[in-house]
TrEMBL record:
Protein name: Uncharacterized protein
Segments crossing the lipid bilayer: 74-96, 108-128, 160-179
Organism: Glycine max
Alphabetical UniProt keywords: Membrane, Transmembrane, Transmembrane helix
Amino acid sequence: MPGPGPHLMYAMGSGLCLTSISNGRFSPHHTLFYTINAFFGPDVGSFTEWLGSLFGGSAHAFGSALEDLTHHPLFYILLLGLPLSFLYSRISSYLLHTQLLDSLSRVPLTRMQCFLLISAGSFTHFFLDHLFEENGKTTTYTWILSTGWWQSRAPVNPDAVVVVVFLCACLIGGFFYLNRANASNSIKKSHISQCFL
């Protein structure tokens, strides 16, 4: 299973391509919510489980139960799709009215659009997960697993978590900076800058 970096870069890259080929109709709002769900969506349970393991006891049990429920392509959509679609619709309206994020249509995303973006993000997340899994049947996986590095679960290094969080925050911050509503560049003109990002 790939880490958060590949999920984030794949989803943002896909969103950028969709923005380019749709002539801006797939707006930065679409890209943002699609990326959040492809990047962090179904792994919210894994993140909660990791946080719970730091505190132990009932927090770890809650995180483990949440991970079992949400790390599934359909269960994530069925359990969290509706509440998140309401939340994302409100956030989209806020981002548009405060001019933090540009949109060609100048209309916030509807709840149905948000629900569809949540679904697309979940399926994209598992598409990338399944590309890297295959139960060790590929020669590369057999070679990686033969090293014996994983005795049980792969350890989480807190220093690596800080670095990954910093890099992901820079990528999302750069996305907001390039797509802000009061920017002098239009969505199409900022395409090259976004590719460099």
